[in-house]
Amino acid sequence: MATRNEKDQQIASLIEEIQATNVFYLADTSELTAEATSLLRRACHKNGIRMRVVKNTLLRKAMERVEGRDYSELMGSLTGQTSIMFAEKGNAPAKVIRDFRKKHARPVLKSAWVDEAIFIGDDQVAVLSDLKGKEELVGDIIALLQSPIKNVISGLQGSAGHTIAGLVKTLEERAS
Fold first, then answer.
1. How many CB atoms lie within 10 A of CB 149?
2. Which domains does the chain carry?
């Protein structure tokens, strides 16, 4: 049995990890064999995810002590065995869970915290695995912004685009 001091250290460690990330998932990994658990840990590690089994009471205390964030909606999922998965990318744990479940019944997603958005329930795995990361979103925005510019440039590079009249004609065509 853990001493009071050991529990306090575990809570402090959890607080530190929770504060250091904007993404964590709570999953049920019970009923996995030791071999399957080892495979899951390897899959997590390969994808930049830190996974650990936690005691619900210690995790609840840690989440209550993190300042500036409200984890109250996640508290209901702190039942049974809980594994916490910390990640940098919001969709990484969902992709690991989805792929791992092609051969195993678990892990089952209890809930997730992704950049202050809360997802509850295993039915959210598909939604979460399709989330775009910050880099992907920035790329999409840049592509959208560049699109009109590329159209004008391609029109200017056409045979009629070497004159002001050609530019006006190109712009009129693009407008209609």
1. 9
2. 4-129 (3.30.70.1730), 134-175 (no CATH)
**Spatial CA neighbour of 25 closest among 108, 90, 112, 122:** 112
Q: Which of 29, 57, 30 is nearest to 44 (CA)?
A: 29
Rounded CA separation 161/1 (Å): 80
How much is the pLDDT for 161? Answer: 46
Quickly list DSSP for the chain.
---HHHHHHHHHHHHHHHHT-SEEEEEE-TT--HHHHHHHHHHHHHTT-EEEEE-HHHHHHHHHH-TT---GGGGGG--SSEEEEE-SSTTHHHHHHHHHTTT-S--EEEEEEETTEEEESGGGHHHHHTPPPHHHHHHHHHHHHHHHHHHHHHHHHSGGGGSHHHHHHHHHHHH-
List phi, psi (to 5°) of 119: -120, 130
Bridge partners of 111? 26, 120
pLDDT digits (tens, 9 = 90+) for 104-137: 999 999 999 998 899 999 999 998 988 877 677 7
**Residues 33, 38, 43, CA angle at the centre, nearest 5°?**
125
**In which residue are the tokens 């650990």 written?**
52
Phi-psi region of 115 (alpha: psi -120 to 50; beta: other; left: phi over 0): left
